[in-house]
Amino acid sequence: MSERYARQELFYGIGKEGQKKLTGKKVAIIGCGALGCTSANLMVRSGVGCVKIIDRDFIEECNLQRQTLFDEDDISNNLPKAIAAKKKLQKINSNITIEATVAEINPSNIDSNLHDTDLIIDGTDNFETRFLINDYCVKNAIPWIYGACIGSIGITMSIIPGVTPCLRCALQDIPTFGSTETCDTAGILSPASGIIASIQAAEALKILTDNVAAVNRYLLKFDLWKNEITRLKIHNLREINICKTCKSNQFEYLKMGKYSATTTLCGRNAVQIVPVNGSNINLPMLASRLKPIGNVSFNKYMLRLETDKYVVTVFPDSRVIITGTNDLPTAKSIYAKYIGM
Prior knowledge:
This protein is an alpha/beta fold. The protein has two domains: 6-257, 3-Layer(aba) Sandwich (Rossmann fold); 260-338, TATA-Binding Protein, CATH 3.30.310. Helix content is 33%, strand content 21%. The protein has helices spanning 6-10, 15-23, 34-46, 72-76, 81-92, 110-114, 127-140, 167-171, 183-186, 190-208, 237-240, 283-290, 328-338; strands at residues 26-30, 50-55, 97-102, 119-122, 144-150, 153-159, 218-223, 228-233, 262-264, 270-273, 295-298, 303-306, 311-314, 320-323. The protein has an eight-stranded mixed beta sheet, with helices on both faces. A six-stranded antiparallel beta sheet has the order 9-10-14-13-12-11, with helices on one face.
């Protein structure tokens, strides 16, 4: 018995055989915020053979309250979340493979990033990306674990295509814009995200070790502040609903026309813009061009322009995050002004 995983191998649900299975598995974590940080940490410590972290964002001071893989030095070094997480996790477990991708998952790149994945853990902050993941996973028979947190409330659901209901069986369509709370309006309690991510990681371990019978078949909802735990029965939704994904195999969120190129970021006064025909940007050249406009700093991962009103963060794939506005037309105007459309 290896010393690193000794206590995990002693657990009846995993054992030596289960641990051996984990070493041959690959898990992708999409989004490295509060949920993604905790899930990635637990997957790496559990000995999953390959953990891939995909995140579009960089680290800000407000992240440190709940995103456990980051520190103040990461902010000073202008590190994207995926890169900073990989650096931390490699120090925890050097025996496994850790991959970091700084990107926005969308219909054009989802297959190239996830085609060789055994399981996906949701660490995203928007339903559009979750419905995209759901379509991709159902189409390709990849299990995934949905999770979400807002305020003191956390929700999670395990999805095994062909066995359990999918996310669209439960929600049917993306909630109307403005109809749900966000981090901006309700905030978020750090322990709530820690609990949901821990449940996601536990569900992942069950699936990866072929303990499917132990997988949660409910939609779990926790309110830590009110001390409430709710289990919503969803096991028959696949049978009673005419799900566009499970029943009709439409997979409409895998089509570029269904996916937005502009997104307001949760918990931030910021907008992300993803050019439809994105191309690689020469960051040193762009830094030289933008230098007269404001304070410019850059490394190989991203460039940051600070003006009196806005902060413009540019990634090599031409994706941009504009901080200082939630107004989409304003963000597009800034993009056109400084980067070019």
